[in-house]
Amino acid sequence: MIPAAFEYHRPGDLPSALALLQQHGDEARVIAGGHSLIPMMKLRMAEVPHLIDLQAIDALRGIRIDGTRITLGAMVTQHELIAHEGLARVAPILREAALQIADPQVRYMGTIGGNVANGDPGNDMPGLMQCLDATFHVTGPGGERAIPARSFYESAYMTAREEDEILTAVSFDAPTGGQAYEKQKRKIGDYATAAAAVILTRSGATCTHASIAMTNLSDVPVWSEAAGAALTGTPCDEAAMLNAIAAMLADIDPAGDNRGPVEFKRHTAGIILARAIARAWSRA
Amino acid sequence: MTQKMQITLTVNGTRHEILAEPRELLIHVLRERLNITGPHIGCETSHCGACTVTMGNRSVKSCTVFAAQADGAEITTIEGLGTPDALHPLQEAFREHHGLQCGFCTPGMITRAAQLLRENPNPTEEEVRFGMSGNLCRCTGYQNIVKAVLAAAATINSAKEAAQ
Ligand SMILES: Cc1cc2nc3c(=O)[nH]c(=O)nc-3n(C[C@H](O)[C@H](O)[C@H](O)COP(=O)(O)OP(=O)(O)OC[C@H]3O[C@@H](n4cnc5c(N)ncnc54)[C@H](O)[C@@H]3O)c2cc1C
Ligand code: FES
Ligand code: FES
């Protein structure tokens, strides 16, 4: 499996990378870890005459925690996310989710920027970023823009990022309350049959705020506002949980494929969400 | 055909200057241009881990890295880990604990395990299983691979203690 020929570029800074993107237009594409793009190129489902490698751009690296605001450079790998002790303290859901992505070798290469920019509904970080209400930072010829994760995804592989823009970072407020990322997959290293990201805050016996997002159950990640609302103001008991699941099921739109028929995916989505809510509540 | 580019790779301590097309995969450059055939091609779709090598301090599937991306990198393959007369503790442990049958997955297994033990010199059984989950074996059922990695960890640790 050999991809079509291409020219390789390794710019040393962001302006050079943007200039290359401008120069080669839709013949060019950036490569981060390459663990979504290279398989597509080998299958010749993606043809990229000019491949622009982002690995030498230091400005895209690094994990920053400023007070309660967390910023992850686009080229931070899943392995680096998992290994970062500070991040595990302020936003443990990131490590919990990243550990459920692929396998160790893939996690050394796969980046947060590539995972969220890719637009594959199977990627785990987009749903998590919607749950966190994260912001995606992109830079293009017109300068910088900030795009909310919740309005970034248009359809499979189509996002609000323009083709001449590079995603430079994602940022979000450190979540408060109980957090859980729950994922059902056929085997280790597989994409989700269904996955749920849940963050709950609690005051006494009452849930005061809930954010719920689902992965691989539509052609985009699904942040279900109604599912969150169904838990808010409740003691997070069984009745409230069933309401939240019903609200979530009204928002997803899974397609049948080799992970199962639609009915199975909807059933799995309900179970995964119930587990994620229970675990997040126990940590709230 | 695009122009070939000059790529520098340091493999098992030896520096190589190679002229290759950017689209060539690291596994192909290692096996076909440098004759380093320890890393195997199993699936060629990033799933089996037979092609695992160490790039810098990361275990990578060399079927999913362009040689151009690896330009400038230090690569370690199974050939860099021991010699027939002086086996690496992992190689010794795989032999002792019957951690291989056909041997196809073994170079990838051992290369991955070496990096795992560098990062986590005292893994639990569960950590070994999770840390090796990117490598598939069709023969052994994994039990003896896990035993071998745990035994090698103990050997390496006691050698380190003895040296202190
Ligand atoms: C065996 C296997 C199993 C996997 N399992 C999972 C899984 O369970 N869950 C999961 O979420 N992922 C999974 N992945 C995908 C993996 O996490 C990818 O690495 C990740 O989705 C993409 O990150 P990357 O850095 O490799 O991006 P690349 O492959 O380099 O890029 C992906 C796309 O994003 C674009 N892009 C990358 N970076 C930027 C940027 N900074 N700005 C603009 N565009 C950019 C590229 O042009 C390309 O179109 C798996 C991959 C493999 C090979
Ligand atoms: S050959 Fe590279 S992962 Fe199977
Ligand atoms: S020993 Fe045969 S595949 Fe592992």
From TrEMBL, chain A:
<dbReference type="GO" id="GO:0071949">
    <property type="term" value="F:FAD binding"/>
</dbReference>
<dbReference type="InterPro" id="IPR016167">
    <property type="entry name" value="FAD-bd_PCMH_sub1"/>
</dbReference>
<dbReference type="Pfam" id="PF03450">
    <property type="entry name" value="CO_deh_flav_C"/>
</dbReference>
<dbReference type="GO" id="GO:0016491">
    <property type="term" value="F:oxidoreductase activity"/>
</dbReference>
<dbReference type="InterPro" id="IPR002346">
    <property type="entry name" value="Mopterin_DH_FAD-bd"/>
</dbReference>
<keyword id="KW-0560">Oxidoreductase</keyword>
<protein>
    <submittedName>
        <fullName>Carbon monoxide dehydrogenase, medium subunit</fullName>
    </submittedName>
</protein>
<dbReference type="Pfam" id="PF00941">
    <property type="entry name" value="FAD_binding_5"/>
</dbReference>
<dbReference type="InterPro" id="IPR016169">
    <property type="entry name" value="FAD-bd_PCMH_sub2"/>
</dbReference>
<dbReference type="InterPro" id="IPR005107">
    <property type="entry name" value="CO_DH_flav_C"/>
</dbReference>
<keyword id="KW-0274">FAD</keyword>
<feature type="domain" description="FAD-binding PCMH-type">
    <location>
        <begin position="1"/>
        <end position="177"/>
    </location>
</feature>
<dbReference type="InterPro" id="IPR036318">
    <property type="entry name" value="FAD-bd_PCMH-like_sf"/>
</dbReference>
<dbReference type="InterPro" id="IPR036683">
    <property type="entry name" value="CO_DH_flav_C_dom_sf"/>
</dbReference>
<dbReference type="InterPro" id="IPR051312">
    <property type="entry name" value="Diverse_Substr_Oxidored"/>
</dbReference>
<dbReference type="InterPro" id="IPR016166">
    <property type="entry name" value="FAD-bd_PCMH"/>
</dbReference>
<keyword id="KW-0285">Flavoprotein</keyword>
TrEMBL record, chain B:
<feature type="domain" description="2Fe-2S ferredoxin-type">
    <location>
        <begin position="5"/>
        <end position="81"/>
    </location>
</feature>
<dbReference type="InterPro" id="IPR036884">
    <property type="entry name" value="2Fe-2S-bd_dom_sf"/>
</dbReference>
<dbReference type="GO" id="GO:0051537">
    <property type="term" value="F:2 iron, 2 sulfur cluster binding"/>
</dbReference>
<keyword id="KW-0001">2Fe-2S</keyword>
<keyword id="KW-0408">Iron</keyword>
<keyword id="KW-0560">Oxidoreductase</keyword>
<dbReference type="InterPro" id="IPR012675">
    <property type="entry name" value="Beta-grasp_dom_sf"/>
</dbReference>
<protein>
    <submittedName>
        <fullName>Carbon monoxide dehydrogenase, small subunit</fullName>
    </submittedName>
</protein>
<dbReference type="GO" id="GO:0046872">
    <property type="term" value="F:metal ion binding"/>
</dbReference>
<dbReference type="GO" id="GO:0016491">
    <property type="term" value="F:oxidoreductase activity"/>
</dbReference>
<dbReference type="InterPro" id="IPR036010">
    <property type="entry name" value="2Fe-2S_ferredoxin-like_sf"/>
</dbReference>
<dbReference type="InterPro" id="IPR051452">
    <property type="entry name" value="Diverse_Oxidoreductases"/>
</dbReference>
<dbReference type="Pfam" id="PF01799">
    <property type="entry name" value="Fer2_2"/>
</dbReference>
<dbReference type="InterPro" id="IPR002888">
    <property type="entry name" value="2Fe-2S-bd"/>
</dbReference>
<dbReference type="Pfam" id="PF00111">
    <property type="entry name" value="Fer2"/>
</dbReference>
<keyword id="KW-0479">Metal-binding</keyword>
<dbReference type="InterPro" id="IPR001041">
    <property type="entry name" value="2Fe-2S_ferredoxin-type"/>
</dbReference>
<keyword id="KW-0411">Iron-sulfur</keyword>
